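Marked as duplicate of an earlier ticket. Keeping the data here for the record.
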Amino acid sequence: MASESAFDTNLVDQRVKTLVNAQLKTVLKREKLAVSGLKAAMQDRIIQQLHHHAANKDLVRLNRLKGFINNPDASHSPVPSITSHHPSHPHARQSAPLPLMAPGTSIPLKVREATRDQIETKITFRSDVAEMLTSDTNIRVLLFCASEPITHYTTTDIAFPHQVEVKVNMDEVKANFRGLKNKPGSTRPADITSLLRKRANYENSLSLTYALTQKRFYFVVNLVKRHNVEDLVAKLKSGKVISKDQVIREMISKAHDSDVQATGANMSLKCPLSTLRIEVPCRSTICTHNQCFDASSFLQLQEQAPTWTCPVCNKIVSFEALEVDQYVDNILKSTPRSVDLVTVEPDGKWSQITDGDELPSGDHDSSDDDDADLVEIRDPPRVAAVKHEMNGAGLMRTPPVSSREHSSSSVPPQSVGSKRSASAIIDLISDDEDEEIRRPPKRPSIAAYPTPSDKSRPQPERGISGLFGRYPPRQMDQHTPRGYPNPP
């Protein structure tokens, strides 16, 4: 019991750090303590009083102080302990909207940098919980894990060890324990409901094997209620809304800013997530843009990969901050489904863009620009005459191969069909036409042997034909052997 009381005190200590100044002063007044000083000083004063009651084992005052801390805005009456009668859930950043029905106890995982470790625990259900799991399919048992202690009043990202294996009753849990790459907090809790035996007082075994961890992890098993996307969308429609007058006032206020020159802007009626026409336009209250997204598409995406970021401005949003925009909803109801884009003026007036209107800059088709640089040239008279002769005389006879090899003025054959020839299209961007076509000079032909008419010309010296060309005749040395006299 002592360890359980100390654990409860630590939970309340974390709850104290989440209170604002007005709530801290209310708790201090009820405990008849000084309300002066900074926020940290007031927090320390309440925590010291809490530990003082716990050390003296004064359970009456301890539970009363816990009630004040748990409900600082409530009336001056004792409130039961938060661990017994106050259902809440660990506010994992991506666990919403999964309200907890029965809080669990977080179990720490030790650091194992070079080895592996295994944690085993038992899960049992009361008779009422077992009956609820059997009758209602929306009641689920989820496994949460984080790198920080999971408490009732803290916010943390769901994260499992990189190498982890979870088994329930010796059956492996098939789940994605990593989430999206480079997206912390996008991991979903593991659903282990189907592997549990939903019988009262039956001990279900849960084993978690992990290895190569650089930090400590904590996991907890919670009983939650799952909400369908359709139910959440209906809740958004019946909840708070962003009125049309409020949106227009904000637009006029921005237009009157002297430092900003406001002009009309185009607003898409398509959802940036599904690229389909928006059905239920919504956005977060912390977003400053008028562009909305479809509520159903956004919630379906969070069900698959819970990032909880606005698809327009990438701000962190929550389900509680989503509201339906009546200004955009009025535009959707006043335009046909074929309209996907409207122009919104700074004063709030809007007009739909028809097919004849000019598209905004950056959205025009670039294929017209490519064809604008190409000009079709009609056939010149000479080519037309050749075509006429070919059509009149029928098929021309193909010259022999020997005559075609030495011919340099033959006209290339024209392609038969309706397609334009590539030679009839000239690219005006190219500068090749401005340059004159210069043919290389012909090499003079030098005869290897003189003709009879060229006897007057100097005769080349006869040499020896070899593999590498003709060699000049060898010059013999004019000398006389030693010992012989020179001839007269």
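See parent ticket for discussion. Residues 39-55 form the longest helix (17 residues).
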